[in-house]
């Protein structure tokens, strides 16, 4: 009899779900406690601290729907600002396999969500997506590993470092982190603790805007890499940081014939390219009945210009929160240049530019 209980409970829940249509049980459960929802992943903030004046570090306890992550992956975090749900991508920076999630977010002066998160308080609830991304440690682990980061790009690489130390990785690990000054260096104490726990783990701090206080000073160079990890040519390197650091590292590794050994994660996207002067055709937003001349801008901007407020997040083609159904017409991906013309095709409004007449189910 006891063995049948879970099945009966599941049956009762399914019945309740059907009876509560069209909203579903989750819409009512979240009125009692947002963490009770079953079909969405939520997280409750359990701790907050500010390592630097322009960053916030907070711990999130995910709901039971959370399935874990691999070190280096990211999640799409949702917050509500002025009644609008906003989505951004952030990398958990704890070791994989741990229960709670830790995030560090740097405030962008122009960033709506990052500035909102600076005031995150214990008890706040955020939405979470399943973990995603291919920037992960290979298995089996390489014998020698260089972890390199700049600024808030430290988060996915720190997750790798913590995971390797927790696993007792037997090979050599160097963590090379770039910050403007010693005061801007995130996780300095935590990195020192990892080095104290693991003899083969070494931390190198490089400061780009200070002439003292670090192990290295100035911008990234081959000399920096040779000082930090003389054996880097025989290692696998994992990098996340601002665009200039990423570009300099790619150029160096390409010149050395080591491009295949450099693994990178972008946290900013390249600027979108579109030619407004060549625009033609009309854009129709079917559900709202709005219609306008094609301005040549991405469809998200055209929808907003038409007075619509579609859900969106990163505006860079990363978070997928602005995905809508294109029922007719052709669009060009402003990031890749690829043109697609299939009917009833899901597209990302923020990076899709109409090519002639287009109809969107919005």
Average the pLDDT over all residues and give the rounded result: 88
Could you tell me the strand content as a percent range? 25-35%
Cα separation of the termini: 50 Å
Q: Could you give the order of strands across the largest sheet?
A: 4-3-6-1-2-5
Helix/strand-derived class?
alpha/beta
Q: Estimate the global geometry from the Cα principal axes.
A: globular
Q: Could you describe the largest sheet, including whether it forms a barrel?
A: 6 strands, antiparallel
Number of alpha- plus pi-helical segments: 8
Rg, nearest Å: 23 Å
Low-confidence stretches: 1-5
Percentage of helical residues? Answer: 10-25%
Total number of beta strands: 18
Oligomer: single chain
Order of helices and strands: HHEEEEEHEEHEHEEHEHEEEHEEEE
Entry keywords:
six-stranded parallel beta sheet; six-stranded antiparallel beta sheet; 362 residues
Q: What's this entry about, in short?
A:
This protein is α/β, with parallel strands linked by helices and 362 residues long.
Task: Explain what the structure shows.
The protein is an alpha/beta fold. The chain is built from 8 helices and 18 strands. The chain has helices at about 5-20, 25-30, 110-115, 155-165, 190-195, 220-230, 245-255, 300-305; strands at about 40-50, 55-60, 75-80, 85-90, 100-105, 125-130, 145-150, 170-180, 200-205, 215, 235-240, 260-265, 280-285, 290-295, 325-335, 340, 345-350, 350-360. The strands form 3 sheets. A 6-stranded antiparallel sheet has the order 4-3-6-1-2-5. Strands 10-9-8-7-11-12 form a 6-stranded parallel sheet, with helices on both faces. Strands 13, 14, 15, 16, 17 and 18 form a 6-stranded mixed sheet that branches. Strand 1 and strand 2 form a beta hairpin.
